[in-house]
């Protein structure tokens, strides 16, 4: 008994579901066929997809669009652009559409999904491909209203107007660009064809480790791999994906960064060892030292009066290694008055760090040389005006000392031990991709040369 009841309720449930689906289809089709095809001779409705993923592909010309939809043939295809303060109606008026056609065209667009919104958000400068209606030929317009979509309006043989949204065909392409820097990275990369937004991404990701103002020399080179989406009809880039790989060769020092998406799918960049591109400056550039004097006002141990202390003092035994607080270039390494033996490193265009009272310098530390974060640059001493072995450490922002504790440079997390194996495989894939792209560039060059040779022989 219970079972029968259950079966009955199951049936009722199924009936309700079927009804709901039917309603849904009916509802959808009222949108899906923006205008019920009233023409008697033709009973097949023109399908209007709701889902943008299932949109049909657009074609390059109105003539080809008409062939796609089977509309009234057009002649004399023309092109105009939407001007400032113009509505579609006023634009159509300007390009000689009569009022009756204009009204029908606007209505046809209103009938497509989101049509009213499309009409109120048409961008200035939008391309309007059109063909004026006449007795023998059909009226049609194609609006490239977004980067990826067209709305097409056409007439059938009975002079009714219809409208549909089309997706412009696109292609994703991986691009490798290599170049030499002439004067600055920005100008040279732009000249080599790196799109501007990709270039800005490149600069912001390299900005943690490179001082673009001073560190880049003529003849330094760069490499970049990125993906672009091309509009096949217009042959223009619609969008670029985040950079895959970037490399900068600074007078022999090579910086490489690889995109390795985080769990949220956001681009993160790391060097070949999995170290994050987002580098901060170390607040304590020495191991096992004790902070003996903080930043701020204090009574000076030698001079006796209260003085602003614009750095941090770390008490440590003589000879304790002092580390570079960040990647950068040595700006000064030598005697500097009361600072004694002194090193200053320039990290970015904005940040520098200074190390004073040293007993000696690492032999690799020379003015103009690049140093890496965490590498030994010198040794704790008591040179200059100092009471005992300690490191006096300063952080400078725009050449003014700031409290190192308050540095706001974000530090990125490095690739975790758990992921490092996967990361190595990932960068190997990118490097293989690079080799493949290099080969295809090479092949293109050979093909072009063959063509040039052939042509010159013909001449
Ligand atoms: Zn000090």
Give the gist of this structure.
It is built from 8 helices and 23 strands. With 459 residues, it is of the alpha+beta class. The protein folds into 4 domains: 32 residues; 116 residues, Roll (Nuclear Transport Factor 2, Chain: A), CATH 3.10.450; 101 residues, Nuclear Transport Factor 2, Chain: A, CATH 3.10.450; 117 residues, Glucose Permease (Domain IIA), CATH 2.70.70.
Structural class label: alpha+beta
> And the CATH topology of the largest domain?
Glucose Permease (Domain IIA)
Number of strands: 23
Give Rg in angstroms.
Answer: 34 Å
Q: Return the domain count.
A: 4
Low-confidence stretches: 1-5, 18-50
Task: Please give the structural blueprint.
Layout lengths: L1 H31 L29 H8 L8 E4 L6 H7 L4 H13 L3 H6 L6 E5 L8 E4 L5 E7 L5 E7 L2 E11 L4 H7 L4 H11 L14 E11 L4 E5 L4 E6 L2 E7 L9 E2 L19 E4 L2 E4 L6 E4 L2 E4 L5 E3 L4 E8 L5 E6 L4 E11 L8 E2 L4 E5 L9 E8 L2 E3 L17 H39 L1
Antiparallel strand pairs: 1-2, 2-3, 3-4, 4-5, 6-7, 7-8, 7-9, 9-10, 10-11, 12-15, 13-14, 15-22, 16-21, 17-18, 17-20, 18-19, 19-21, 19-22, 22-23
Helix pairs in contact: 3-4
The structure holds zinc ion.
Explain the overall architecture.
By secondary structure, the chain is an alpha+beta fold. It has 4 domains: 1-32; 52-167, Nuclear Transport Factor 2, Chain: A (Roll); 170-270, Nuclear Transport Factor 2, Chain: A (Roll); 290-406, Distorted Sandwich (Glucose Permease (Domain IIA)). The protein has 8 helices and 23 strands. Strands 12, 15, 16, 17, 18, 19, 20, 21, 22 and 23 form a 10-stranded antiparallel beta sheet that branches. β7 (221-231) and β8 (236-240) form a beta hairpin. The longest helix has 39 residues, at 420-458. The protein starts with a helix and ends with a helix. The relative contact order is 0.08. Residues 1-5 and 18-50 have low confidence and may be disordered. The site of zinc ion (ZN) has 5 residues, from loops. Residues 293, 309, 311, 313, 392 line the site of zinc ion (ZN).
